[in-house]
Structure formats: structure tokens, C-alpha cells
Design a protein that fits this description.
CATH topology of one domain: Uridine Diphospho-n-acetylenolpyruvylglucosamine Reductase, domain 3
Bound molecules: flavin-adenine dinucleotide
Largest sheet: 8 strands, antiparallel
Distance between the termini: 23 Å
Order of helices and strands: HEEHEEEEHHHEEHEEHEEHEEEHEEHHH
Number of helices: 12
Strand content: 15-25%
Structural class: alpha+beta
Number of strands: 17
Shape: globular
Radius of gyration: 22 Å
């Protein structure tokens, strides 16, 4: 319990009066919004504030400053961090603004939307947003972490396509942030997560794309070695119009899992290409032929089906995530990965994915951002389900994997995966200059440190 709890309890009515949204204490309707997608994370704030607008966020920030509380923000809880009763949780689910301008090819998107909402709104206009692999992830949380989507090698980071943010800072200021207005915040919000403010709306570019060639080819686990080695060789000269990842999967025998993949070890080659169909087909054909696919979902598909490339889980679940960035991966690296985390390794992980980076991601965008480590060659992403019987195994195995891959990992990480509150872990998402400048901006725009919770950068770690 925080020492100030009785005083807060006495004045919580003033917060209710100050906001048009809903303030919910534990046990009250609305408090259940705190429950994150990753249900393994204990999110038990003092209160949930389901905000209706930017003014509600500002009122929440002011209340928190007055009472010595912190303010965290959550939409879906895909990147949840533990929160206790010293925190007010701003829930953005009611911020559902969505205005598509087909002529300008832009979208103004409330922080309460997830990518599927934006896809559904943009598709009728023949336009597409640069969503992530999971279309049920929140737009604002994804973009403030940079945003690596299934076409990342072709287009680069999704946050490179942001035109403007509307935010509430830790000082309670409502700011419209663009490359020309508060340019330093425009730099820092793209990669700095909630360090510099809570986003209530974002303006993004939309792409005039309706279809792409992509999906996933699945192989039996017994073919993992031949597929993984061929995939690595194939990545070496994959053109920038194509993005890919390799995943060792152990999907549960559930009705929503396609029968050929359920309850067994498989290997997926994920592929998303903007090349013309013949060229894309020839490219993936080289991998299709290295073993016999058990399921082949690669074809010309509407952009609206972009979530099918990775087929990430939709329903909330208790997960443990591990992530790392790597330099060049050698044949030896893939063999180590196979032996520690591939089929037959007794890995308890549900997904062990290697995403090829590079291409457009590696180039600095027109407006530089606080997203770092564009030079990484691959991202390693691992997720395991924390069932009571296997929880310790999953966490211990992730550490083993980390050690085994250390000859190839860079010690750096992405801001978006495996959410963490540990300042040293957070610092690994940035180079030293970026970390310093994010911290300096945070001192200026959040002078009371009210947003200092979860993945935020502060210089006095
Ligand atoms: C299954 C799965 C698939 C994923 N796929 C991808 C992927 O392909 N590419 C990728 O880059 N990431 C991916 N992620 C990571 C995801 O982008 C991050 O976890 C992101 O933070 C989720 O945002 P959210 O709002 O849905 O989650 P939440 O847990 O609600 O928010 C997580 C954090 O995002 C920040 N945030 C959220 N809303 C706001 C806001 N309004 N203003 C400021 N900051 C905010 C805060 O730091 C917050 O703590 C994936 C995660 C999962 C679990």
C-alpha cells in the first residue's frame, strides 16, 4: 500500500468529477479493464481511468501529481508490466476516433484503436496501414515502440509513417507534435514508448496497397534442420521487396489451431512480398521445395489478411517473452538455435522466431527517431505459455537460449517486445546518446516523474 492511500481514497470523488470517463476502484465496474492480454502480468493499479478525451488524461495526471501517484497507460495489455496501487492506469479503449482521408492517404487514429480497426476503416478506400504481425495490438503502443511489421524490410518501421501525435505530457500539457512542432518530442515518441507522454491520437500515412503475396509455409518438425539452414542461405540475398521470418512452433491442440499444426512441433517460414506474383512465387518456391509442406498458406492475399502471415494468438494468455537482436547469423548459429530450441530439443517454448531485418529498416528515415539498432541483422523473439506445470521451465529455458545465442546477439533489444520495467533492460533498447536525450526530455516534460512506470527512460536509473 502507498503511504498516501487514505488521502487518495478521500479525494477520489474529485477525480471522478474532473473526468467525463469512468474511474474504477478495485471491485467496481470498469476495473476489469486493467486485466491485460498477457494475463500472467499482475496489473493491479490503485484505479483504472477509462478516459474519454485528452482532458481526462490531463486531469488524471494532475491528480496523480497531487497525490504522489504514477500514471501508466494501457490499451490491450499485449505489452503489460506489473502495476501496483501506487499507479493510476489510463485505459485508452474509449478513444476510438478514426478519420480516413482517402485523398491525402492519411488516417487520424485514436489511441483506443487496434490495428484491425484501422485496417477495416482503410480497406474500403484501397488503402492500408503498416500494422504489426498481430492486428489485435494497440496502434499507439505499437508505434511508440517503433513498430516492426510483416513488411518491415520493404517499408521500414511503421513509426516512420507517423505524421503527428497528440499527447498529454507528464506536466499535464496537451501538445500537437509533428516534425515541425515540438520536433524533439516527435523524435522521442517514436521509440521512447510512454517516456514523453500519453498519446491520445496519432496521424499516419496510409499506403495505396490492396494486396500482397504472402502467408506461411509450414513443415513438420522433423524437417526443421533442412528448412532452417535453407532459410538462412535464402535470406542472404532476399530482395528488399520481401520480408520473412522462421519460427519453430509448438501449438496446442485447440480448435482455433489448424489441425495440421495442432499438438505437434512444426516449422513455419513466414513471407510477405510486394514483388510481382511471378517473382515472389519463384522466391518462396526455392524454400517450398526443400521439404514437403504440411500446410501452405502463401498466395496473393488482401492486405486485410496481413495478420495471417504470423497468425499470432488473439485470446488473452499467460506468456513469458524473451527477445534479442543479433548480428549476422552463421550456419553454426542456426544449428545452436536448433539444438536448444528446435523440434526435438525439449524446448518448452510455444514460438521461437527469427525475423530477418535489414532492407528499408536499416536506413534512417527522413525524420530521425529514438528507435535505435537499425543495423541489427535479425530479431529473436521467443514466447512460452506460463502454465503452472511448465512456468519455471519456460523462464529457465529462455535464459539457456540467451546464453547459447550470446556469440551472435548484440546485447541490444527492441523497445516493443518482452516488456520490462528494469531500467538496465530498458536502456538496452537505446544507444547512449538516445538514452541520454530521452531522459533529458523526460526531465523537462515530466518534471514530477509521474509517468515513471513501466518502459520509460530516466537518467537516474
Ligand atoms: C502476440 C504479439 C505480437 C506482437 N507483434 C508485434 C510486431 O509484429 N511488431 C512489433 O513491433 N511489436 C509487436 N508486438 C509488441 C507490441 O507492439 C507491444 O507490446 C506494444 O506495446 C503493444 O501495445 P498495446 O497498446 O497493444 O499494449 P499495452 O500493453 O496496452 O501497452 C504497452 C505499452 O505501450 C505503451 N503505450 C500503450 N498505449 C500508449 C499510449 N496511448 N501512449 C503512449 N504509450 C502507450 C506503454 O509503454 C504501454 O505500457 C507484439 C506483441 C504480442 C504480444
Amino acid at each position: 500500500m502507498t503511504p498516501t492511500t487514505p488521502a487518495i481514497a478521500a479525494s477520489i470523488e474529485s477525480l471522478r468529477a474532473a473526468v467525463s470517463g469512468v474511474v474504477a476502484l478495485p471491485g467496481e465496474p470498469g476495473y476489469e479493464l486493467a486485466t491485460p492480454w498477457n494475463v500472467a502480468v499482475p496489473v493491479r493499479p490503485y484505479a483504472v481511468v477509462a478516459v474519454d478525451n485528452a482532458a481526462d488524461i490531463a486531469a488524471t495526471v494532475r491528480f496523480a501529481v497531487k497525490h504522489g501517484l504514477k500514471v501508466a497507460v494501457q490499451r490491450t495489455g499485449h505489452g503489460a508490466v506489473p502495476l501496483g496501487d501506487d499507479v493510476l492506469l489510463v485505459h485508452t479503449g474509449r478513444l476510438t476516433e478514426c478519420v480516413i482521408d482517402p485523398d491525402a492517404r492519411t488516417g487520424r487514429i485514436g489511441a483506443g484503436l487496434v490495428w484491425q480497426d484501422v485496417i477495416d476503416a482503410a480497406t474500403p478506400h484501397g488503402l492500408a496501414p503498416l500494422a504489426g504481425s498481430s492486428t489485435t495490438v494497440g496502434v499507439a503502443g505499437f508505434l511508440t515502440g517503433g513498430g516492426i511489421g510483416p513488411m518491415v524490410r520493404t517499408y521500414g518501421l511503421s513509426s516512420d509513417f507517423v505524421r503527428a501525435f497528440d499527447i498529454v505530457t507528464g506536466n499535464g500539457c496537451l501538445l500537437h507534435v509533428t516534425p515541425d512542432e515540438h520536433a524533439e518530442l516527435f523524435w522521442g515518441l517514436r521509440g521512447g514508448k510512454a517516456t514523453l507522454g500519453i498519446v491520445h491520437a496519432v496521424e499516419i500515412d496510409l499506403l495505396p496497397v490492396t494486396h500482397f503475396y504472402g502467408g506461411a509455409v509450414y513443415f513438420d518438425g522433423s524437417d526443421a534442420a533442412v528448412v532452417a539452414r535453407a532459410w538462412l542461405d535464402w535470406c542472404a540475398d532476399l530482395p528488399e521487396h520481401s520480408s520473412t521470418s522462421l519460427a519453430f512452433l509448438q501449438l496446442p491442440p485447440l480448435p482455433q489451431v489448424p489441425a495440421p499444426l495442432a499438438g505437434r512441433s512444426t516449422v513455419a517460414v513466414r513471407f510477405a512480398s510486394l514483388a510481382d506474383q511471378a517473382e515472389a512465387e519463384a522466391l518462396i518456391g526455392r524454400l517450398r521445395s526443400v521439404a514437403t509442406p504440411i500446410l501452405d498458406g502463401v498466395a496473393v492475399v488482401p492486405w486485410a489478411a496481413v495478420g495471417a502471415v504470423h497468425a499470432d494468438p488473439v485470446d488473452p494468455m499467460p506468456t513469458h517473452e524473451y527477445t534479442a537482436l543479433t548480428g549476422e547469423l552463421t550456419r553454426e548459429a542456426i544449428d545452436v538455435l536448433l539444438s536448444v530450441a528446435g523440434p526435438g530439443s525439449r524446448s518448452p517454448q510455444t514460438v521461437v522466431e527469427v525475423r530477418l531485418l535489414g532492407g528499408a529498416l536499416a536506413r534512417e528515415p527522413r525524420h530521425r527517431s529514438a528507435f535505435c539498432h537499425r543495423d541489427a541483422d535479425f530479431a529473436l523473439m521467443v514466447a512460452g505459455v506460463l502454465a503452472p506445470a511448465t512456468a519455471d521451465d519456460v523462464i529457465g529455458h529462455a535464459r539457456t537460449l540467451d546464453r547459447a545465442m550470446s556469440p551472435w546477439t548484440t546485447g541490444r533489444r527492441l523497445p516493443n517486445f518482452a516488456a520490462d520495467s528494469d531500467p538496465d533492460t530498458i536502456a538496452r533498447a537505446y544507444d547512449d546518446d538516445t538514452w541520454h536525450w530521452l531522459g533529458a526530455l523526460a526531465d523537462e516534460h515530466d518534471s514530477a516523474g509521474v509517468l515513471r512506470v513501466g518502459h520509460v527512460v530516466r537518467r537516474d536509473r
